Description:
The chain has helices at residues 16-29, 44-51, 71-81, 101-105, 132-142, 146-149, 166-171, 184-194, 214-233, 242-252, 256-263, 267-274, 281-300, and strands at residues 4-10, 33-39, 60-64, 86-89, 94-96, 115-117, 120-121, 162-165, 199-201, 206-208. By secondary structure, it is an alpha/beta fold.
Amino acid sequence: MIGLSILIPVYEYNPTELIKDLIQQGIDIKIPLEIIIIDDASTVELFSTWATPFKDSTTIHITRLDQNIGRAAIRNKLIQQATFDALLFLDADTIPCTKNYLASFTPFLSSNYSCVCGGTAYRKEQPEAWKRLRWEYGKAREEISSTIRNQNPFGNFTLNNLLIRKEVALKFPLDNAIQKYGHEDTLLGMTLAANHLQMLHIDNFVYHEGLDTNDVFLIKVKQSVSTLVELYTQGKLLSDTKLIRLHKKLLELKINRFIALLIKPFIRSIEKNLQSAAPSMVYMDVLKYWYFEECLHKKNN
């Protein structure tokens, strides 16, 4: 059915501003539209705060789960509830950068592309020092023009701000076994690439507003690396990420563990830098490599 199903997974966040923005833009584009939101067992108090004002809407469908099912499973559940052929995934802590955001996607609702990614952007203003790491990382690694992203379409695949055909999403569901943070989108991107589907990146950004504190983001980075190690050792990855390519290169030289041991004494200083007002992305890469080797070593011993 022609129309747009906007799918928003929520956990411990108030998406009111995003919902209001999408409602207004939905009126302007004049096509059938629904907004489906599933809350992954946030506190009842927070959920009620933002969900109650929309309870009588015929366009917005909101559900709260009693038990947390994880980032992959909740997105699969959203897909199953969608009415229309075109699905637009949005993270709850984002907001469109322009007032013609939805209109910019409409030409692709019936295109030959299986997926169209709009991209993620960050505000120009630096946040407080205690949120600086997530902002710096986003600016350096995620805010990328479509010209660059299209050079390696599936290498820059993310679920946030992703327009995808429902038949594709149903055929290639996310891996429900991934319940911890990170790489459910990496695995899906690899699967879509292996099946030779068409992917297009455009400059139709959303701002990432819900910046984690430095310490929380560091925990998430480590969890993401741990998840990557799990997928790698289980043989689920259909191609190599940059981190895995580095590991394999140093493994071939038989120095991967030696390099990790050299890094280890400096980890406390590296983490101190990453939680400062001027975090180094080079240090972030060093930390991720060290933690990858640590997780892999523990798993193999």
